[in-house]
Amino acid sequence: MGTSQITAPSCAPSPVPGDATPSSGVIHINVRHAAGFTVIGNHLAQHRGLSLAAIGLAAHIQSLPAGARIGIKHLAERFPESETRIAAALRELEAHGYLHRSRVRLADGRIVTRTVSYNQPGAVAHPVLAPRPRTRRSKPAAPLPASQPPPRATTPEPRPAPTPAPEPTPAPAPQLTPAPPTPTPEPHPVPVFVPAPTAPRTLPPPLPQPRALTPQLHQAAAALLADLRRHTPALTLSESDIAALTPGVATWLERDAHPDTIRRALTTDLPSPLKHPAKLLRHRITTLLPPPLPGAEELAPPRRNTVVIPLQNCDRCDRAFRSRHPGNCRDCRSALHTAA
Prior knowledge:
Blueprint: H1 42-45, H2 52-63, H3 72-78, H4 83-95, E1 99-105, E2 111-117, H5 215-226, H6 228-231, H7 239-254, H8 259-267, H9 277-287, H10 296-299, E3 311-313, E4 320-322, H11 330-339
Antiparallel strand pairs: 1-2, 3-4
Helix pairs in contact: 2-4, 5-7, 7-9
């Protein structure tokens, strides 16, 4: 019986390496650049410690010619990022050794910033070795088809033996002079960014508390805070903010402050726009708290300390007179003086 014709292969052909399309992920379409390109290593493009803005800024700086301006204001005019974001990206590059900035004084006395960009921080230059020539391998002979019979073996004709040539005298081996060792340049120290010490944060003063928070005082203070939005819509407070600020307003009412006075102190000269009304009211309630009203005794004028001279009885006429010491009155003293 003859073999039946096969119209389809028994299995799918294996894909050719390099031609298979991935089922997911990025697909690269690379075109070889002949001019106007910059070589950037994967250690920068795939850096784990740098942000995306810092990686893009490093690629932009390495693509610029020598002497190009890369100040923060110049980069902020070139890109949509703010000066704060660009400054943070430059500090990241300095911390990882891709950038080094220093202040240099010129001959004319001006001080400029010198920026050095490293395409591979901490790398040591090594000599480039020349590639070895590749030897072409001989192609194996193509196999003969199965239908063609193998060629018959033929007996070669005998040839006369060649006359052996005289062996050449080996030349003396040349002495190799060792090459001087190439000095290895010291790696450039990677600058370390040390943040400036920040001043300790001062805590805000505590909210004043009344001596006795009665229910009537609590209700009046809460109602005054809730009523502020009728006069100033920007001072719309939540229930939690009113509950937190009520003791401070109750302290004002306890010190005999009129509600109109409290309302005027809390709503006058507000900033625009007002972002945190509760924090502003807490600050004003604490810093503008008036002292307690003085009482009647404190408002009375001070009394003079007068000395009262006691009364004395005259030894001669028994008349009363004021004197610090007992004796005769003025008339009796005058009569005794006249008689003498």
